[in-house]
Request: fold
Amino acid sequence: MRAVKLTSPSTVTLEETPVPEPGPGEIRVKVAGAGLCHSDLHLIGMGDAWPAFGITLGHEGAGYVDALGSGVTGHDIGAPVIVNLLWSCGDCRACVEGRDNACEVAGGRDDFPTTPGISLNGSMADYVIAPARHVLPLGDIDPVGAGPLTDAGLTPMHAINSVRRRLTPGATVVILGIGGLGHVGLQIVKAISAARVIAIDNDEKKLAHAAELGADLTFAPGPDTAAQILELTGGYGADVVLDFVGVQPTVDTAAAVIAPEGLVRLVGLGGGTFPMRAVGLAPWGVDVQRSYGGTRSDLLEVLALAAAGKIRIDYTTYPLEDFQRAIDDLHDGRVIGRAVLVP
Ligand SMILES: [Zn+2]
Ligand SMILES: [Zn+2]
Reply:
């Protein structure tokens, strides 16, 4: 089969490899579509620091059940499925408490749980192997474009579930970055709340996309961004800021507009630093969280919202062998929503 692999620093190639056999408790999924994420660009750009050369990329995979390993029950060959982003153990204290994105066994203090396409072979291939527990039914959702639900959907869902208490009518939510995650996060906020959404992006096409998806206000960032948002909230600030970019200018905007006791969720891996100390810099009570991935429950909620037609992934497909064009388009900001590789 064909597989898109990160083989050496900054080098991605399409390789021919044997079709993998599912081991006990595993499922082989015939991939229908695999999302390309900014995290993939991050891995490709890590150079020598990347510890797993040779693995197949792709942490957003969906497709059809193709073969069952021994002991697997409850799955039908040919059924459409999605592969969970985070392969938590399911049994440790964190998992049992429903914090499986912070699994004590598969992850750690500095590491996230096992992730296909990052820790081991992912979905940018004809087939992917996954533990049966982490292969979830898609029902009527088309698997070609469903893969991104497991990161571009799941990750905003988790961040948003942690701010639900502030999504009251009249609340203001600022969303920074309307790319793969941002375009879904915006839809989730609108689907589950009556909050006002202000979408910010420096690309006019992405702002138009945000407006189409229901953003109440859209604007490009500039020197007056923070003042404009404060004015829109009577000087009080935004209840919630979801930063799907995470570079210093977006983090600075978050700090400048967050309301007292407001909730900031830093999701994008841009490397910005949020200014905070015991006294000053941020308003009293501000709650900042580095938000990573999501729980199994968050994923089930994303799938339910998608099945109900309340959220969707907007995507452009590329043949698997055109992976480099997809990477270049994402890198250069030409992708609206998600790029999906189709084997
Ligand atoms: Zn990702
Ligand atoms: Zn666990």
User: Anything to note?
Assistant: Residues 88-89, 92, 94-95, 100, 103-106 surround zinc ion (ligand 2) (CB under 6 Å). The mean pLDDT is 95. The two ends are 10 Å apart (CA to CA). The domain at 2-151+313-342 is CATH 3.90.180.10 (Quinone Oxidoreductase; Chain A, domain 1).
